[in-house]
What does this fold into?
Amino acid sequence: MKRGWTGRHEVTKVGAESVRAFVPAPLPPVPPLSFDAGLQRALETAVLALGRLDGVSTLLPDPSLFLYAYVRKEAVLSSQIEGTQSSLSDLLLFELNEAPGVPLDEVVEVSNYVAALRHGLERLREGFPLSSRLIREIHGVLLSRGRGSEKNPGEFRRSQNWIGGARPGLARFVPPPHAAVQECMAALERFLHAEDDGLPVLVRAALAHLQFETIHPFLDGNGRVGRLLITFLLCHAGVLHEPLLYLSLHLKQHRAEYYELLDLVRREGDWEAWLAFFLEGVRATAAGAVITAQQLGRLFQENRRRIEEKGRRAGSALRVHEVLKARPILSLTAICEDTGLSFPAASSAMGVLVELCIARELTGRRRNRLFVYDRYVSMLAEGTEPL
It folds into this structure.
């Protein structure tokens, strides 16, 4: 449905330049969303896929293993959309303080994303409401160090920003003037907690994400916070028990369509076109995560069976295998600490895994060597190739 402009323009000054900034109308859309048969089917399919994904947390022997790695995959993807070139391996190495040749600012940016996600979920589990205050806290963690740390982490902007173009007059889109940000975010917060509009949680998440991107309340990091908002909303509503749904892969693969739809909603009010795109992203992403979880489960079982065939050498090797399942890139020193094995015993056990082509040495050094659970990282890294 084409409703026309979904807000109003205000003329504002940026230096000597006058620009038309866009102030979105509060949600929900007016007139209300129109759910034709196709959109209703898309919603039902997405909800079903999300339910299957939530069930993964009860099917996996240790859901925390999948969650640890999947969260990091999302951090890489979400940061890549913003222009970083870091890989999943870069992040895992950085977390070991072993990242030679990796652009430090970029890996710090990805690591901050993991910390911001963890912080937000902990606050929600403590009973803190999903609110503007929490969004500012999450932003503060996201920009706490590295690139963007000088751009008022944790604070709504106090100056005009713009998207695309070297200056506001050439921008693809100019968000609301900074004086309107507080009011816009307060309206968004009321929408997040509304219980009288009959909107399903997935629809609320779709609308809230786009509205947040339109407000663009921070000087930097808006895209990453906007994507985190989807996960927080679904977890806060109890639709997901663990933060397993991330749309960054879908948005990375369909970037042009994503940005086009954001603009289409603002110009023409076609929320239904955006919602169809969002729901397909939920379906595809949830289905992909289920498949990956099942593949990892089979990989772990098969590798364990192969190790057990080594007889007396299997005991220590199985302990090392368990540690690599939790952190797929590790040094022998870290393995000793995590398993309680002596250095010679850990080295010998790792030798079994290398012999079976389960693990691979990364550095080529004789000292301070690092080992990677090769197929595990390869399976997780699918889709995270830098743009």
Observations:
- The mean pLDDT is 90.
